[in-house]
Every structure is written in C-alpha cells, then in structure tokens.
Specification:
Layout lengths: L2 H14 L7 H37 L6 H10 L10 H37 L4 H20 L8 H44 L5
Length: about 200
C-alpha cells in the first residue's frame, strides 16, 4: 500500500474520532493540519509571491520601481511598535483603496450587470417556461428590494411586496442551506469511500 494512502487513512480516522468526543488523537490531527497548512502557505507565499514577484525582479532584473511596494510592505511591520505604528496606516490605505478600485468594477460587472442582463434575456425568451422563469426572477428581485427598503413604512402595496420578498428570502436561505448540507455529505461520502476502498480494501 502506498505510504501516502496509509498516512491519509490514519489521519482521516483520527479526525473522525471526534465523533466519540474530544480526545488527544483528534487534537494531534487538528494541530498537524493547522501546522502543515501554515507551512504550505508560507512556502508558497515566499516562492510564488515574494521571490518571483518582488525580490527577483527588484534585485536581479533591476526593476527599481518595485522599491515602492517593498517599502509599503515594510511599513506593515510598523504595527509591532507604538512609535512606528502610524506607518502601517499608509500601507493599509493603499491596500484598501487599490483593492476597492479593482474589486468594485469587477464585482459590478460580474454580479450586478451580468445578472441584470441574464434576467432581461429570460423575460425576452422564446419559450413560455423561460419567460415565466424570468418574470418570477423579476418579481423576486423587486419584492426582496422592497423588503430592505426601510425609508418607508411597509404598508399597503409596499407591505404586501415586502411580505412576498420574505418568502423569496426563505426559499433562498433554504436552498442555500440544503446545498451546504449536500456538499458536506458528499465530502463525507468521499472520505468513507476512500477509507473502505483505498485504505481498508473492504469494497471493490
């Protein structure tokens, strides 16, 4: 049997031992998981980010403009001392500002505009089922928005629309929870299949 399979099987059983209660075997496996994950992240960050993107281009390929992000990165360590903690604010400002500048247009295009386009295309569909589905989506959109519109009392048409919006929200939460449970069960089935087939060879 492959040594990797043996180690994976033993660690899987160690994690599943938590079903019988908190025990030293589970704590050992949990600590090992956290330690290995942190070591892996550190190595990947050092190799693929710091060395490949910063140090090698800056000191080997003489791309001296990278000294600016290098200095801002050093400013982040200023938070470890009171006299230099103010320096990290400049780095955080650049990080948050540039991140927002990149993320907002991307999210606006990917989540808002694309979904609006898909909704309109469904309403203009060829089949009755497509058009009906699009109308349901539009009704769910406006009723849910009316539920979160707090500048006006939920009375009359606004109140009825908000009530319909709560139904759409409950359907969304229910399906999301069901999908989450299904994905966890699928993961558990995969682990059990690994234990019974690859590790213990009890099934073919």
């Amino acid at each position: 049997m492959d040594p990797g399979t043996i180690v994976a099987g033993i660690l899987t059983i160690a994690i599943l031992s938590f079903l019988y209660g908190d025990n030293p075997v589970y704590k050992m496996a949990e600590t090992l998981l956290v330690g290995v994950s942190m070591g892996y992240v550190l190595v990947i960050t050092w190799t693929n980010t710091l060395m490949a993107v910063l140090f090698k281009p800056l000191f080997v390929e003489s791309e001296f403009w990278l000294i600016i992000p290098f200095i801002f990165g050093l400013f982040m360590f200023g938070r470890f001392h009171k006299s230099t903690s103010f320096l990290s604010r400049y780095s955080m400002a650049v990080l948050i500002g540039s991140g927002a500048g990149v993320a907002i247009p991307a999210m606006l295009g990917a989540r808002t505009l694309r979904q609006m386009t898909a909704t309109v295309e469904m309403v203009q569909g060829d089949s009755f089922l497509t058009i009906f589905s699009g109308l349901v989506v539009v009704a769910g959109l406006f009723s849910t928005l009316s539920y979160f519109y707090f500048s006006r009392e939920h009375e009359g048409i606004m109140g009825r629309s908000a009530r319909v919006g709560t139904y759409f929200l409950m359907i969304f939460f229910g399906t999301t929870f069901g999908y989450t449970v299904m994905s966890r069960v699928s993961t558990f089935i995969g682990r059990m299949d690994f234990l019974l087939s690859d590790f213990l060879h009890l099934t073919n």
